[in-house]
Amino acid sequence: MFSLENALYIQAGLGVLANMCLLVFYIFIILGHRPKPMDLISCQQTFIHIMLFFTAGDILHTDIFESMNIENDFKCKTTFYICRVMRGLSICTTCLLSVFQAVTISPNTSLLAKFKHKLKKYTINAFFYIWSFNLSFSSNLIFYVGAYTNVSETNQMKVTKYCSLFPMNYIIRGLILTVTTSRDVFLVGVMLITSTYMVIILFRHQRQCKHLHSIRHLRASPEKKATQTILLLVVFFVVMYWVDFIISSTSVLLWMYDPVILTVQKFVMNAYPTITPLVQISSDNRIINLLKNLQSKCH
């Protein structure tokens, strides 16, 4: 258990540092240049991941709240609500990233081509809708979470060191689980469809380039590199998300949270926010060139 908690601290530190660096880069791009719709989505996703690290569990926020002398009940409701909202926003922005990249690389003869020139406008509208949806969607859980007490502890399900879920009606529990599952299945389904579409486009493009003997141009294509990065992130997200979902859903249905399982779930939940910025930094030529320029100036 000690080693798992140490791993969580290392993971959180690495994740926050990588996301902070990436957020600074995207802010620099958005303020200093003409940002692409994908930059706006990635910037928001990075901010969401930072918030996830600060609210998911007892790793970073406990000492902050304790130093402010805030009541445990308010602390639990606030952090749990923000965590659920950010978790929902994470899957929504990943889905949005996948959809917009599919539109970006779609051939001019396809039905999606007419949306290419309006992506920035659609991005702002999509941000408004997904934030509104997730802020309202997770609000019902505020009434069922609070500070953990030793009184009637058999009726409470511990979700963090200091917070627990209170007993709820089987119908309400089933309804919340059904609605949440429906949302997740729909969004993951959209991700898989758009990912399959992008794989088909890349396969056709590669076959055409081989036929034209211009495989070097294909390898150097920024669109292909960006698409491959997003495909990698989507696949990793789907795997990690459903492992996390299975653990949490099983625990809610059985109304039982084991401390070791809870720690493993936190590690799984933080895996995607940790890996994403590292993959984006290593695959974005703009960041690599910026780092090279900074290194050359330092020398």
UniProtKB/TrEMBL annotation:
Domain of life: Eukaryota
SUPFAM superfamilies membership: Family A G protein-coupled receptor-like
Recorded topology in the membrane: Multi-pass membrane protein
Keywords: Cell membrane, Disulfide bond, G-protein coupled receptor, Membrane, Pheromone response, Receptor, Transducer, Transmembrane, Transmembrane helix
Cellular compartments per GO CC: plasma membrane
GO molecular function: pheromone binding; pheromone receptor activity
Membrane-spanning residues: 6-31, 85-106, 126-147, 159-179, 185-203, 230-257
Subcellular location: Cell membrane
Pfam families cross-referenced by the UniProt entry: V1R
PROSITE patterns assigned: G_PROTEIN_RECEP_F1_2 (PS50262)
Residue ranges of domain G-protein coupled receptors family 1 profile in the record: 20-280
Example GO BP: sensory perception of chemical stimulus
Entry annotated with the keyword Hydrolase: no
Predominant location category: membrane
InterPro entries: GPCR_Rhodpsn_7TM (IPR017452), Vmron_rcpt_1 (IPR004072)
Similarity section: Belongs to the G-protein coupled receptor 1 family.
Protein name: Vomeronasal type-1 receptor
